[in-house]
Design brief:
The complex is a heterodimer of chains A (781) and B (202). With 781 residues, chain A is of the alpha+beta class. Chain A is built from 31 helices and 13 strands. The chains are: A alpha+beta (781), B alpha+beta (202).
Chain lengths: 781, 202
């Protein structure tokens, strides 16, 4: 026994783990940016769209409803709580804008629009003729009849042509919202409503969770027990979904851990073996986190959750190790060394399978791939070089669970007789899948972020109440410079107005009215008369009216100043609540300037689509179909990568087993399992999503492991007493862990639970059927 | 014949008795119950608006329509046709804009002066003392034949809104004769005021 040689791996392990643990504890930065799991699109439109989604287009709104818990809540209570909540939200830093119908535009916004009213108002040309002036002044005099507040009186003197009101209207959402006592209410008067626009990056759910919590806690402080608060909006849905999953994960992982510990203790009858079984998996997780953090600077919460799931294969490694310790001959090292080649082949093929993720186009999946490859490698090395060092050389585990072993042996002798039946099943499944074709895929993005039907209904209802139109289509205008793209938006707006007037289009949102190009601004300013000219025109216009001529001094000064003013630029909107909207409708992408024009309504005029198709710098995007297309593009890439992965696995198996028929037979088990598993998923859950694919990768990894060991039984018949128990114990452990996921209410977790649970069971069965071959009679009894 | 005499007696007694009530000390309660008798009304009005922005007062003539409990319409006919209808909490403004008849439904909050007039006048006509006292402090003087009701807006605690009733209106003076409101004067904070004279006959 050479002590230094033996303790060397242990020393290296301790050192590496110390570094990794230091990194994990000191530098761990978990992100929750969902857009990491959106693919980098292939086409230009997809790229821009993906960019938009990452910036959270229209995703910043939180729709808030205050309603009574019972029937006898009065409108006064609803309105009072609404005003109080709005006041509280406005005083916080979480929101750029809180609208409840009550206040006019916030002061910073209004003073900006006021300053630039003559370049923003489309009515300037008409209003500054003598006739136009007379008309406007007449209207102002009429308004005076209803009595004007001090603010409006001041405005009348400064802005008698009423440009501020015209400009402010450009910012109003299309459609009017029902109001009572000055605040938004639903048509039936049962709810009072608010609309809050979040500040900051919406993809950062951790930060936005604070804002959402702030709304709830403010409401709890302000409102009595008779009222309740409900919220919706993309961020609210995102946060809720995540919390539901997180809660389930916590409960279920504790449940699964307890079950597995109990099972392992029954299986080994040794606390030492039970505890040591966890070492490779925990090592794998720590190394996975450290590697990803080192490479990316941070790790996504989902990478952590799914990564730990994927390297669940590593639970099987100590299972094989300990199961061979029931044999009494040789040292611990020697006994384990016998099965190491088989385990090594299983580890290598799993790593090849998982590395497919690294070449995917989702940044989140790249993380996941790196995590699982690093983690799995570390877990395997730990099992091989560290675990044996921790055990006494003469350590022997008792044979356990004889009854179960008997049952499984019997099972193993029956199953191979059904070989033909299973082959027929695989052929039928293959035929059915080919017949189903593309329809087995679930492309909808909604399936990726599962939302309860109740939440969807609330979302629809509040959107209707608040007239929050959904843009289903979008035009992207492209140009080399900001001014060019603005001019294109202006040209387009003329056509959009025509379509809107003819009823072909419900509405649109464009940058054009909010930021006119320099040439349009200059043109509007050129219409403004000089001081002397304006004074004459004003005097002429006032004849016959009762307004005093000398009250318009500040107006004359304002016009004079406006004529010399620098043009309004995108940057002027900075630090106003209007900035979000402007930046969404105009942004720079690489060297290009992009102006998205949102189109509302269910249908889009055909002439609009024709126009876009003839123009290379105008992209028409059907939002729903485009996101679907993105998923489809990703899928083709995924299938291609999986084929490459399968080929590499086959080569590795051939090199390891030194026999092509054997390699093919081993590979055929996970392939057949995936086929049947996919068919079951499609039948039970309606279609395949990204999450199913990740779960299937785990199934492939486990399937390869199982089959390699079953294959080993062909040559080492005596191992039916050591390798075989390791296999069914591994299978039971996996079923315990993933079966418990089926208890979750979150569809994502259910999807993974079902896929892995069914998959791993099929791996065990099919591995027995044509991996192990006929069991020797001598072992029957 | 006997029943006729009894009828006359009761009738006279009622009138007399009613008169007795009103002849006694006039209180806000008694004024309100007198005003509350009116179910609906349609009367002409003349309104003069005095403002520092004007060289001469603006004169508006039109119809005032009221229907118990919460409908009030001010229909300006000259110099330009404009209708202001308040029903419940909403104000509808109907007027001609660029040759088209346009209807705007707006919140009363944006038009505090209009709100003062309509809510104060409507509550007074309805004899709704509770509603009046919610918005104003009341001060009654004069006799039943010629009463004056001074309405001063109650300050509202609403930091969001710097244009509440109390911020823009100094006071509202209503005068009348028995159950008729005959004159409404609104005095604004900055000195502008309007005087509406209502003709009791349609």
């Amino acid at each position: 026994m050479n002590l230094p040689r033996q303790s060397l791996p242990l020393a290296i392990y301790t050192l590496l783990m110390a570094v990794a643990l230091f990194m994990v504890t000191q530098r761990l930065h978990i992100t929750s940016d969902m857009s990491l799991f959106l693919p980098d699109g292939a086409s230009q439109a997809q790229t821009l769209l993906s960019y938009q989604m990452k910036r959270g287009l229209n995703g910043k709104s939180v729709l808030i409803s205050i309603e009574g818990r019972n029937e006898d809540v009065t409108m006064v209570e609803l309105v009072k709580a609404n005003k109080a909540l709005a006041r509280r939200l406005r005083s916080s830093d979480y929101f750029v804008l809180v609208s409840n119908g009550q206040a006019r535009l916030p002061d910073t916004a209004e003073s900006l629009l006021f300053k630039y009213r003559y370049v923003l108002s489309p009515d300037v040309a008409h209003n500054f003729t003598v006739n136009g002036l007379r008309q406007q002044l007449g209207l102002r005099q009429d308004e005076l009849a209803t009595g004007l507040t001090p603010r409006l009186k001041k405005l009348l003197k400064q802005d008698p042509t009423g440009e501020l009101l015209t400009v402010a209207r450009l910012w109003q959402p299309p459609g009017e919202i029902h109001k009572a006592q000055g605040v938004f209410v639903s048509q039936d008067g049962r709810r009072s409503l608010l609309l809050a626009m979040l500040r900051g990056d919406v993809a950062n759910l951790d930060a936005q969770q604070l804002a959402i919590d702030f709304i709830s806690s403010s409401f709890d402080k302000l409102a009595g027990n008779s009222l309740r608060l409900r919220m919706t909006g993309p961020v609210v849905i995102g946060v809720n979904t995540r919390n539901a999953i997180r809660g389930d994960v916590q409960v279920l992982s504790i449940l699964a851990t307890v079950l597995v510990i109990i099972f392992l203790f029954i299986a080994f009858r040794s606390w030492q073996a039970t505890l040591f079984s966890a070492i490779p998996l925990l090592t794998g997780i720590v190394v996975g986190i450290a590697t990803v953090s080192l490479y990316f600077g941070s790790i996504h919460g989902i990478t952590l959750a799914f990564g730990s799931t994927l390297i669940g294969v590593a639970v099987d490694y100590p299972m094989h190790f300990f199961s061979h310790l029931v044999v009494k001959s040789g040292t611990v090292q020697q006994r384990f060394a016998r099965i190491w080649p088989t385990l090594r082949l299983g580890v290598l093929t799993s790593i090849i399978g998982f590395s497919v993720l690294i070449f995917s186009s989702y940044p989140g999946l790249v993380q996941l791939g790196i995590f699982s490859v690093a983690g799995l490698g570390a877990a395997a090395l730990t099992t091989r070089w560290v675990l044996p060092m921790l055990m006494n050389d003469s350590f022997v585990l008792p044979q356990t669970m004889h009854a179960a072993q008997e049952v499984f042996l019997r099972f193993a002798s029956y199953l191979p007789q059904l070989k033909k039946g299973f082959i027929a099943l695989v052929i039928v499944t293959l035929g059915w899948m080919l017949y189903q074709g593309e329809s087995i895929w679930e492309d909808s993005l909604i399936k990726l972020s599962p939302v309860s039907e109740q939440q969807l209904q609330l979302d629809r209802q509040l959107r209707q109440d608040l007239n929050a139109l959904n843009a289903n289509h979008m035009l992207l205008l492209l140009a080399d410079s900001r001014q060019q793209v603005l001019q294109r938006a202006e040209a387009l707006e003329i056509r959009l107005k025509q379509w809107q007037q003819s009823g072909a289009l419900t509405g649109y949102s464009s940058i054009a009215p909010l930021l006119p190009s320099r040439s349009v601004q200059a043109q509007r300013l050129s219409v403004l008369p000089g001081p002397a000219q304006l004074e004459v025109a004003l005097r002429q216009a006032l004849t016959g009216l009762a307004l005093r001529p000398d009250i318009f001094q500040s107006f004359l000064g304002e016009v004079k100043r406006a004529r010399k003013q620098a043009p309004l630029e995108l940057e002027d909107y900075q630090n106003t609540p209007l900035n979000e909207r402007v930046r969404t409708l105009l942004f720079q992408y690489g060297r290009q300037w992009v102006a998205p024009v949102l189109l509302y309504g269910e249908t889009i005029p055909a002439s609009l689509i024709d126009m876009a198709s003839e123009d290379p710098e105008m992209l028409f995007i059907a939002l729903r179909e485009e996101t679907t297309g993105m998923m489809r593009g990703y899928r083709h890439r995924a299938l291609w990568l999986l084929s490459v992965g399968a080929f590499l696995i086959l080569v590795t198996l051939f090199l390891g087993l030194r026999s092509l028929p054997e390699a093919l037979r081993v590979l055929s088990v996970p392939v057949a399992v995936v086929l049947i598993d996919v068919a079951l998923i499609v039948l039970l859950q309606g279609g395949l999503t990204l999450f199913h694919l990740i779960a299937l990768l785990l199934v492939v990894g486990l399937g390869l492991d199982y089959t390699l060991f079953f294959n080993r039984l062909r040559r080492h018949e005596h191992e039916w007493q050591s390798t075989f128990p390791a296999l069914w114990k591994s299978w039971l452990t996996t079923v315990l862990v993933f079966g418990s996921l089926n208890l979750s209410s979150a569809p994502v977790l259910k999807a993974i639970g079902l896929t892995v649970g069914v998959g791993v069971s099929l791996c065990f069965i099919l591995g027995l059927v044509w991996g192990a071959g006929a069991r020797p009679r001598s072992l029957a009894h | 014949m006997k029943s006729f005499i009894i009828f006359i007696n009761i009738y006279v007694g009622l009138i007399w008795g009613g008169g007795m009530v009103y002849a006694g000390e006039m209180t806000i309660e008694s004024l309100m119950s007198a005003l509350a008798i009116t179910q609906h009304a349609e009367q002409t009005f003349t309104e003069r608006r005095y403002s520092e922005l004007l060289t001469r007062p603006l004169v508006f003539r039109g119809m005032l329509r009221y229907k118990k409990p919460d409908y009030l319409e001010k229909h300006v006919q000259t110099p330009r046709d404009q209708r202001f209808i308040i029903k419940g909490d909403t104000l509808t403004v109907e007027r001609n804009e660029q040759g088209k008849r346009v209807k705007h439904v707006i919140s009363l909050e944006g038009f505090p002066i209009m709100a003062a007039l309509t809510q104060g006048l409507r509550a007074t006509m309805a004899g709704d003392q509770a509603q009046l006292e919610k918005l104003f402090t009341l001060e009654l003087s004069g006799t039943y034949r010629k009463w004056h009701l001074l309405l001063t807006p109650r300050p509202e605690d609403d930091p969001e809104n710097d244009e509440t009733l109390a911020d823009v209106i100094e006071a509202m003076k209503l005068s009348g004769d028995a159950q008729h409101v005959l004159r409404v004067e609104i005095i604004e904070k900055e000195g502008d005021r309007s005087v509406m004279v209502i003709n009791p006959r349609p």
